[in-house]
Amino acid sequence: MRGIKPSLGNLRRLMLKLREEKGEAAVADLCIASIKGAGSKIIVIDGVRSLAEVRRFREFSDTVLLGVFSPRMLRFKRLRRRPRDDAPRTLKDLSLRDMSEINVGLGDVFALADHVLVNDRDMKDLRLSVRRIYPMLR
Questions:
Q1: Which domain holds residue 64?
Q2: CA gyration radius for the chain?
Q3: Could you give phi then psi for residue 119, rounded to 5 degrees?
């Protein structure tokens, strides 16, 4: 991955650089190149960030967009528990992170979600929610 450390800031800079060099759907194009050889009928992609990416995936194949929402304070607590250098240290850091995500297009993508899950409990409950919605995703 271009020899950079995978952190939130570095990945964001890489995404913006790719968009600048190859267009707004650059990340989707890279994903699609990998998907073509996967040999699977169902592919899950995490991290779609722009309407251009959504359009490109929908041009490529039948695509269902699933938004996963977690309340702000819960996201903050979960992010803080992760052993990562780029976890927000304060609520202000989280707000800056959120605005950064919104500015690259995440809010638009979320607004167009075909289905939305609320992730406000534990992993067991999230898995159950995914299992319930899975038949609708086909």
A1: 8-137
A2: 16
A3: -100, 80
Evaluate whether residue 2 is within a structural domain: no
Q: Is residue 50 part of a domain?
A: yes
E strand segments, the chain = 66-69, 115-118
Number of helices and strands (H, E) in the chain? 7, 2
Q: How many domains does the chain have?
A: 1
Nearest partner of 114 among 37, 42, 58, judged by Cα: 58
Is residue 3, in this structure, part of any structural domain at all?
A: no
In the block, tokens 């800031």 appear at 9
The pLDDT profile of the chain, 138 residues, written as one tens digit per residue, is 467 887 778 888 898 899 999 999 999 999 999 998 888 888 889 989 999 999 999 999 999 999 999 999 999 999 999 888 888 999 999 999 999 999 989 999 999 999 999 999 999 999 999 999 989 876
Q: Rounded distance, CA 51 to CA 33, Å?
A: 19
Residue 134 phi/psi, 5-degree rounding, is -50, -45
Residue 113 belongs to some domain of the structure: yes
